Amino acid sequence: MNIAKLLALVQKPARYLGNELNAVKKTWEQNLVKIAFCFPDLYEVGMSHLGLRILYETVNRRDDALLERVFAPAEDMEKLLREKGYFLFSLENKKPLGEFDLVGFTLQYELSYSNILNMLELGGLELFAEKRRGWPLVMAGGPGAFNPEPLADFIDFFVLGEGEEVLAEIIEVVKEAKVKGWERNDTLLALAQIPGIYVPKFYRVSYDEAGRLIEFMPLKKDLPVEFTKRISQGFLSGHSLPAPIVPYLDIVHNRAMVEIMRGCSRGCRFCQAGMIYRPVREKTPELVLAEAEKIMEKTGYEEISLASLSSGDYPYIREVAKKLLDKYQEAGVNVSLPSLRIDSFAVDLASELQRVRKATLTFAPEAGTQRMRDIINKGVTEEDLINTVTAAFKAGWQAIKLYFMIGLPYETDEDVAGIIHLAQKVADIGVKEGVSRGRLKVTVSVSNFVPKPHTPFQWLGIISAEEIKRRQGILEKLAKKDRRLSLKMHDYRTSLLEAALSRADRRIGRVIYRAHKLGAKFDGWQEYFNYELWQKAFLEEGFDLEAYARRSFSLDDRLPWEPFAGGISQRFLKKEYRDAMAGKNTADCREGKCTGCGVCPALEISPVLTGGRKVDEILT
Amino acid sequence: MKYLLKYSRGGELKYISHLDTLRVFERAFRRANLPVAFTEGFNPHPKFSIALPLALGHESQGELMELTLKKALPPGEIKDRLNSVLPYGFKVLEVKPYSDDRSLMARVSKVVYRIKVNLPRTELLARKEKLLAANPRIVKTTKRGEKQIDFWQAVEALEVQDDGIKVVIKVGENSLRPEEVAKTFLGYLPGDIEYIREEIILS
Ligand code: SF4
After folding, report:
1. Rounded to 5 degrees, what are φ and ψ at A58?
2. In Å, how far from its chain's centre is CA A582?
3. Whole-number Å distance between alpha carbons of A205 and A95
4. Cα Rg of chain B (Å, integer)
5. What pLDDT shows up at residue A1?
6. Which residue in chain B is spatially nearest to A293 when comparing CA positions?
7. What is this structure's pTM?
8. Is the minimum CB–CB distance between A249 and chain B shorter than 8 Å?
9. Residue B70: its pLDDT value, please?
10. Is any Cβ of chain B less than 8 angstroms from the Cβ of A179?
11. Nearest to A97 by CA among A127, A122, A60, A134
């Protein structure tokens, strides 16, 4: 395969070079187990993903296995591959997917699912798992694996949870299978014995008319009917260092990413990440600093990002950030946090980190009224926000960005209007603090709430297209009158598809296949997204997209994704649902009291907190 | 303390852009622990500039860069330290102290390009004869409308070699890109054509 010839013919050929600084190109023959890590989006997106970098490092430091990167090719490259009859290839050794033993996809967002099928096809593999023979096995992990069913037709096995250690166990099985020449089925059966692994073909699944799960039956003995997720034990002792690959291209997150903790137990009821990555595990500040140093030494990046789901909650955030600044400031390095809490501490911290005030400061109140924020358990009051933005304007910021959602459960028009009213109050403070009219800007970014599996709102459907449009109309009308506000809203059709796929069951695999046949790809990119195409794909398989996305369940129904809760207790989710309806808040277990989400007992662990904090008694 | 660096970009790294190249160097300076000076002001930038952007797809054996360090280092050490951290494809060839106050970019007067094509020498010679006789003009559309550029005004010299041509192109107002030179010379652009910048000539 002469890839070099293609490079001269495409835009941004650096996407396909695979020879970036610190990329690992191992000798192909010397490694018994060969893994292709497929990220179903462009290089610039995939290379910004921390998980890819960690697994790259984890596998490539072994001497019996290699892991190479594969990204979704851009349109021009795809066209060339198809024209010339070349297969989609890995970046390092430029090998087609078919030559690997394992082809693994990461499921980061539902709108990348059509790309998975496209990549399998471009790689020359059969799309349907049942049609594939011999090697490779196709696996998938990442948050999407917590509802694997819509992809069950295409994927041989799924991995729930953090990949570092379970991947080592998978490699051992594959090694043995290759040495002993096992049949595909026997290999899969051996893999199915590993905790956290789900092999769909070994289960009979059926649903009733309403889409409730009525049967989830293992077809082999000793297979689980409920899956616990995996977590990485070595993460806290420095074994999860991301590969310091330095891309040539300007990727989405072009910086040294240093992970400071995993998990978040704030308990926002709309947030899937807050459920599936529990419990919280904090690295010691010493380890964070040591890892930052290692990464910086090998990369020379101009920015260090202290990454986690909610970095402001890390107790040593200030110390760590300051130490890094002291050390690297002279070399022109910035330190950044991916997310800010709504409190004045966050503003102080941001002031310390940013010498330049030209950047926008971003906060996420999520909802416009206190009633609504109580429903979603976003423990933030209007006063918190007012104090925070006052501090921000005082410190010299002139532009504030606020994130909200519409379509949350039990939302009224008053709650919707409350978004704009709150934004206006923020703008008023800007005026009061003397920000000039021309400079003052409050960006109001409003997305549409998409209910996700394993959250307290998992039983609910998304609101209708008509209703989203109507509520967006309310926002538009109110925001138009105020020139200080800049309103950004999400396309409702994208949200509907996301909603349909995120709570989908196994039957929707046929729909995804059809959509792929109709040409769906890069659905997360507005320029490619084709809603009518997806509607057609749903219809042809006997579903109505919108109705499917809107379907609600009752609390007693068995949900299609229930077997894959990974340890989260249904009882807890139901309690959270009821508390939401009652507007009752649930505290963060990091404050000392377990709230009974079920994850710790299921995994036989506890949250790992620094600075002598601990959770008293884990509820079972 | 200012230095003039000469470096090459080759192999697959010809496929990265000018902006990518700036990032490669900024990070390499940091890995090499060079005491690079920064600009003053709110948004400090490392003080270095490249004489002339190199197009994506072109190789070079003679790129020039001006670099300011906070404290003086022996030129040989700068060269060695950078070469030990630069990605394969970049190589610093020469470092020397530099004290010209004019910006490097403004000093660029000519570039020397080798353009490799797969054609017999006799044909290349014949084309050169034709071109000398024809004295063509190249029409370029700019923001301010069309302009005509006299080929032999823009191209100071054109030498036929065994595997292509070597041209000296003037840089400035009425300049031609190597692709335009090649297209005028050959009448078309072959798919396997290669561009190698050999030298940047300063005034
Ligand atoms: S089981 Fe208790 S302590 Fe553990 S994450 Fe859940 S709420 Fe927190």
Report:
1. -60, -45
2. 29
3. 36
4. 19
5. 60
6. B31
7. 0.95
8. yes
9. 95
10. no
11. A122
What is the best residue among A569, A615, A616 to mutate for testing ligand 1's pocket, by most ligand atoms within 8 Å of CB? Answer: A615
Residue pairs between chains A and B whose CB atoms are closer than 8 Å: 68
Strands (E), A433-588: 441-448, 485-489
Given an 8 Å threshold on Cβ–Cβ distance, is B26 in contact with A302?
yes
Kindly tell me the burial class for residue A63, based on how many C-beta atoms sit within 10 Å of its own C-beta (0-12, 13-18, 19 or more).
exposed
As a whole-number percent, the residues of chain B with pLDDT over 70 amount to 100
Closest to A574 measured CA to CA, from A592, A560, A558 = A558
CA distance A235 to A284: 11
CA distances from B70 to A615, B46, B73, B102, B113 (A): 51, 11, 9, 19, 35
Distance CA A532, CA A295 (A): 45
List domains and CATH numbers for chain B.
2-99 (3.30.70.580), 108-202 (3.30.70)
The string of DSSP codes covering A410-428 is T--HHHHHHHHHHHHHHHH
| CA–CA distance, A79 with A259 (Å, rounded to integer) | 38
Parallel, antiparallel, or unpaired for β A213-218 and A203-207? antiparallel
Q: What is the pLDDT of residue B135?
A: 84
- Among A101, A108, A39, A116, which residue's Cα sits nearest to residue A70? A39
Closest CA to B13 of B79, B63, B68: B63
pLDDT at B194 over 90: yes
Ligand 1 geometric centre to CA of A617 (Å)? 9
CB contact under 8 Å between B17 and A14, yes or no, is yes
**A611: helix, strand or coil:** coil
**Rounded to the nearest 5°, which phi and psi values hold at A383?**
-60, -45
User: A279: exposed, middle or buried (C-beta count within 10 Å: 0-12, 13-18, 19+)?
Assistant: buried
Tell me the average pLDDT of chain B: 94
Q: Which of B15, B27, B89 minimises the CB distance to A300?
A: B27
Q: Rg of chain A over CA atoms, in angstroms?
A: 24
Name residues whose C-beta falls within 8 Å of residue A325's C-beta, 6 or more positions apart in sequence.
Answer: A333, A335, A352, A353
CA of A591 to the centre of ligand 1 (A): 11
Check A302 against B45: CB less than 8 A apart: no
Could you give the ipTM of this predicted complex?
0.91
Which among A113, A295, A206 has a CA at the least distance from the CA of A507? A206
* Closest to A4 measured CA to CA, from A104, A75, A84, A115: A84
Torsion of CA A391, A392, A394, A399, to 10 degrees: -150
H or E element, residue A84? helix A75-84
Buried b (16+ CB within 10 A) or exposed e, A81-117: beeeebbbbbbbbbbbbbbbbbbbbbbbbbbbbbbbb
* Block residue for tokens 């304007």: A393
3-state secondary structure A15-52: HHCCCCECCCCCCHHHCCEEEEEEECCCHHHHCCCHHH
* CA B5 from centre of chain: 13
DSSP H or E segment with residue B21: helix B18-31
Q: Assess contact for A194 and A169: CB atoms under 8 A.
A: yes
Nearest to A220 by CA among A245, A242, A200: A200
Cβ neighbours, 10 Å, residue B53: 14
Low-confidence ranges of chain A (pLDDT < 50): none
Helix, strand, or coil here: B144? coil
Cβ pair B31, B86 in contact under 8 A: no
Q: How far apart are CA B101 and CA B117, in angstroms?
A: 39
Cα–Cα distance measured from residue A447 to residue A444, given in angstroms and rounded to the nearest whole number:
10
Give me the DSSP letters along A286-333: HHHHHHHHHHHHHH--SEEEEESS-GGG-TTHHHHHHHHHHHHGGGT-
Q: In chain A, what are the domains?
A: 3-218 (3.40.50.280), 255-357+587-620 (3.30.750.210)
| Cα distances (angstroms) measured from residue A20 to each of A73, A552, B179 | 17, 48, 28
